[in-house]
Amino acid sequence: MLKGINLVYGYGNTTLFEGINIEVQPGKFTVILGPNGAGKTTLLKILAGFLKPREGTVEINDQEIFKLPAKKRARMLAYVPQEPETLRDYSVWDTVMMGRYPYQGFLGLETKKDFQGVKKAIETVGLAGYEERTLLSLSGGERQRVYLARALAQEADYILLDEPTNHLDLFYQVKILSLLKDLAAQGKGILAVLHDLNLASFFADRLYLFSEGDVITGAAGEVLTFENIYKAYKEPALVVNHPVLGIPQVLPLIINKSSGGKTRVHIIGGGGMASGIMLRESQQGAKISAGVLNKSDSDWQTAKALGAEVVEEEPFSPISQESYRRLLEVLKKADKIVVAPVPIGPGNLQNIEALLEVEPKKIFIVKPEEMEKRDYSGGRATYIVNSLIKAGAQKYPEA
Amino acid sequence: MKSWWVKLIFGGVVLLLLLIFAIFLAANLGAVKIPLTQILTEPYKTIFFKIRLPRIALGIVVGAALGLAGTVYQGVLKTPLADPYILGVSSGAAAAVALLTLLKSFPYYALPLGAFLGSIVALLLVFLISRKPEPNRLILAGIIVNSFLGAIVTFVLAVSRENMHQIIYWLMGGLNNKGFKEAGVIALYLLLGLVLLFVFARDLNAMSFGDDTAVQLGVEVNKKRVLFLMLASFLTAGAVSFAGTIGFVGLVVPQVVELIFGKDYRVLIPLSSLAGAILLVFADALARSILAPAELPVGVITAFIGAPFFAYLFIRRGRHA
């Protein structure tokens, strides 16, 4: 196990992070995420054993890493830095052979074992046949695989990588990360700094998200939430489940926050059905309110991100009397009320019932004709919608 | 898989043959043509063994030292634009030697030692002034240090009227009026430098991927960098103390050798010393024969080759940036 214990680091008077604990387990793919300048590379260098923290220590297999001789450390841990700006145009073979440095003696004559190690490493990353090619003749993704092969030739238990997917196209990123995942499955402890939250969500066994000088850790589902992302990046983002894989995916919300004009628009939604409407209304200059919504519902996230007034309930709770009363207050203030095409059941029926208390002319309903299809309240919701339409409620124009 | 030592042996043999050719050419050329068949008869025998051969020997060791120093500077500073002359290291050694000549009597062996100190001081100044070891900054710092040290040398020249001519000629770089003794001293410098640099060549390989990569591979980068720069300055000082400031050998040689024999410093370090020797022996043969019976300082020939080459490197680099 590679362990960073209570790490403190800073430059001059500024503290970059204070008391970080981090673990890299063999057989696991661990990922560090966080905004630019949070100290991800610094943390990686500390864990790699060549930058001393202000406080705290790093242990590799229960030995303090800073006390190990450099070559011994290099046999236990490999670090793949970001690509340098100027490259000397070595061949693939020579580059990977450099990974054998910590094993070579005085004159560095290559042994049979060195040759085999290099050959195997090049095969593992899928570059067999490329041995005589030179670095500058390769694509960025291929070079990244060469550096990975060099780390493999070090035969270290732990491989630390600083943004190994930088400058690569999406599918090459997937290729590199799959390779890392395979290596983890073969027993290596992999730690990578990544930028792409969604790929991290897919590949990582464990995440560390830099946030305000600390790290939030856990599985993707625990770390990648609206609140955590907002805390770390100071930007709102929608967290949804991947439609096929079911893992959390983060969608940035590009919002014109300066809007928030005079017209108040209340949106009744849930389950993400109202997010698009909220964005649209907000961008048209409306002041948004929403509810009643359960916390962490994706519409709730969007509403929060838009800075809307939200009437909220705990997750999976029915609408309480208090919330209902607040909903009525908000509805009365609203100039316009939009009803998103949400399924209506006993849990949220009161959102619809409340509409009977307000002026029907300011109500706009999305696809009122399809209400019956999404009615799980035994016909009550359909009845209300139909009577609202009769009383002057309008159909909401679709985008 | 072409191993590095295959390249080294192949390149070594090729360059050795070229060097032998250069030696024969240099032995033959000059104010007096020596017919090879009469080499052992007077007066050719004296000219060959007492004048030509010592001079060739000096050319070999000085050229080797400068070529090697250039390779190391370029490797450590990661720019093809570095060489002992441009960085001001040669001037540092020269200024120290010039100052030493002001003392009426100094021990013979003090000359290279003084030159070494001078070169180290110059290098430190260059680093202090450039602050960041970026190519452009290093070159500008080199110009600053060069001009200051040049002033010291001019000052010494003005003060010491009697051997002014001698100092001027030495400054321009020349292999004349020296013997096996001087060549022997530099050969010792060269041997020490060559062995140590060859042993640590892999560290230079690793360092060319950036400090992070080298450190993670277990190279003690900071210690090694100082060691490499000291050794290169040591070699420069040895060459300058007896042959003056011969420019551009250290600039041209590493680039050409790298172009032909690849990037591995285990190959480049031995071969760049051989190539440096070849270049200087050729250049000196030219210097002696172009205006025969008059002689040009060999530094003039190397500058005629080297300065345009420097311009070429500079332009090419600008285009890639």
From TrEMBL, chain A:
<keyword id="KW-0067">ATP-binding</keyword>
<dbReference type="GO" id="GO:0016887">
    <property type="term" value="F:ATP hydrolysis activity"/>
</dbReference>
<feature type="domain" description="ABC transporter">
    <location>
        <begin position="2"/>
        <end position="237"/>
    </location>
</feature>
<dbReference type="InterPro" id="IPR003593">
    <property type="entry name" value="AAA+_ATPase"/>
</dbReference>
<dbReference type="GO" id="GO:0005524">
    <property type="term" value="F:ATP binding"/>
</dbReference>
<dbReference type="InterPro" id="IPR003439">
    <property type="entry name" value="ABC_transporter-like_ATP-bd"/>
</dbReference>
<keyword id="KW-0547">Nucleotide-binding</keyword>
<keyword id="KW-0813">Transport</keyword>
<dbReference type="Pfam" id="PF00005">
    <property type="entry name" value="ABC_tran"/>
</dbReference>
<keyword id="KW-1278">Translocase</keyword>
<dbReference type="InterPro" id="IPR027417">
    <property type="entry name" value="P-loop_NTPase"/>
</dbReference>
<protein>
    <submittedName>
        <fullName>Iron ABC transporter ATP-binding protein</fullName>
    </submittedName>
</protein>
Automatic annotation (TrEMBL), chain B:
<dbReference type="InterPro" id="IPR000522">
    <property type="entry name" value="ABC_transptr_permease_BtuC"/>
</dbReference>
<feature type="transmembrane region" description="Helical">
    <location>
        <begin position="226"/>
        <end position="253"/>
    </location>
</feature>
<keyword id="KW-1003">Cell membrane</keyword>
<keyword id="KW-0813">Transport</keyword>
<comment type="similarity">
    <text>Belongs to the binding-protein-dependent transport system permease family. FecCD subfamily.</text>
</comment>
<keyword id="KW-0472">Membrane</keyword>
<feature type="transmembrane region" description="Helical">
    <location>
        <begin position="55"/>
        <end position="73"/>
    </location>
</feature>
<feature type="transmembrane region" description="Helical">
    <location>
        <begin position="109"/>
        <end position="129"/>
    </location>
</feature>
<feature type="transmembrane region" description="Helical">
    <location>
        <begin position="138"/>
        <end position="159"/>
    </location>
</feature>
<feature type="transmembrane region" description="Helical">
    <location>
        <begin position="294"/>
        <end position="315"/>
    </location>
</feature>
<keyword id="KW-1133">Transmembrane helix</keyword>
<feature type="transmembrane region" description="Helical">
    <location>
        <begin position="179"/>
        <end position="200"/>
    </location>
</feature>
<feature type="transmembrane region" description="Helical">
    <location>
        <begin position="265"/>
        <end position="287"/>
    </location>
</feature>
<dbReference type="InterPro" id="IPR037294">
    <property type="entry name" value="ABC_BtuC-like"/>
</dbReference>
<dbReference type="GO" id="GO:0005886">
    <property type="term" value="C:plasma membrane"/>
</dbReference>
<feature type="transmembrane region" description="Helical">
    <location>
        <begin position="85"/>
        <end position="103"/>
    </location>
</feature>
<keyword id="KW-0812">Transmembrane</keyword>
<dbReference type="GO" id="GO:0022857">
    <property type="term" value="F:transmembrane transporter activity"/>
</dbReference>
<protein>
    <submittedName>
        <fullName>Iron ABC transporter permease</fullName>
    </submittedName>
</protein>
<dbReference type="Pfam" id="PF01032">
    <property type="entry name" value="FecCD"/>
</dbReference>
